[in-house]
Amino acid sequence: MSTNQLLKPITIEEGNNLCVGGCDMVDLANKYGTPLYVIDEQTIRSVCKEYKKAFSKYEKVKMMYASKALCTSAISKILASENFGFDVVSGGEIYTVYKAGIDMSTVLFNGNNKTPDEIELAIKYGVGRFSIDNYHEVELISELSKKYGKTVDALLRITPGIECHTHKYIQTGQLDSKFGFDLSQIDSIIEHILTVDKTINIRGLHAHIGSQIFEPQCYADEVEVLVKEIARIDNKYNIKLDEINIGGGLGVKYVSSDNPPSIEIISDSIIDSLNKNIEKYGIEKPTLYLEPGRSIISTAGVTLYTVGSSKQVPGMTKYVSVDGGMADNPRPSMYEAEYYAEVANKKNDSTKEKITIAGKFCESGDILIKDIELPKLEAGDIICVYNTGAYNYSMASNYNRALKPAMVLVNNSQSDMIIYRETLEDLVSRDNIPGRLL
Ligand code: LLP
Fold this sequence. Notes:
438 residues; alpha/beta; TIM Barrel; nine-stranded mixed beta sheet; 12 helices; 24% strand; globular; binds ligand LLP
């Protein structure tokens, strides 16, 4: 089975206590405290290898990792050691990979409103590609690349007009989108870039059709749109674009009813469409770039929480509250995302009770999992929520002045802190009281 089709990390062991990466989760909770993000290194490496193998059927492939899913220094090191490049979307992500010692030529800078400071940082550190999203940034890139005496290799971000069935906030390929150029605008941006100056080399096209995608056909359609455009641009402008970046988006299994296709099914659909359309439109084989985020890191991550208070509403829901919630995982309240959980210290307990796992934050919408059957819970039990590697820490907040949790990396029975837990001092360290209030 493909890693993105699993509910749990590949190293999960079900003894009396749940173990991941050879580490007992109850011990991890005791040692590092909760809430705790735990990342299983073997699961990341296994999914990377799976992607590389599945796409090796096409000659020219570059795998990138969409850092927005989870961007930390240690995670960047792991991905780089698997020969992945990086899709980054902010000065913060650029700085993180740079400080982690990543080869910046493997980095692509993407985003619909890159600020002058971010563009300058990207040019200074020598990111390998810009994904050009709008006219405004063409002027900025051109001005700043002149300042540094550099030229910039770029892809044009286009919206291919493909709608995938996913949550509307994470669809991006449809025409009415804030990202990129629609097909009718491509010629004018090319002509604009050609007239601005020679600092921007257009190398290819870039698109991303959405996230948590389960339909291989969406990718096949996307590839056709991109190849057709490359052929059209060549005919009209005699510009040979030799890179296509089809973004990320492959879905994962959060709950047992989710049925994502395997990485191989997706790769076959993409490669078949690519080969077919290369022939149909008569272009040279371009280099194919992919930039998955969620499917690389989601399954590798779990979050541990400690159970605190409970409340039975007579005749209705039983709420069991944990010591985290929407500040460390905003996805259920933002996207109605569903998760699966188990009790790390009660693997062999056969009692069952239907409960709702509530977070500790001050709003009713802070519910992590609605109606899940778990062994009877008591204060102090450790709940393990699965598939929290992607878009949890990266979207975490300090809501209610919560402290952001620690993150540990587990592998071969070893656990290492890769993000330190925030402290109360960290929280107030950025505060300032103006003199007149003292
Ligand atoms: N490339 C581009 C240009 C993107 O915009 C994204 C995600 C990716 C790659 C990676 O997509 P993935 O393989 O992770 O699906 N916060 C939302 C997800 C937003 C995704 C935004 N773009 C969530 O928690 O579901």
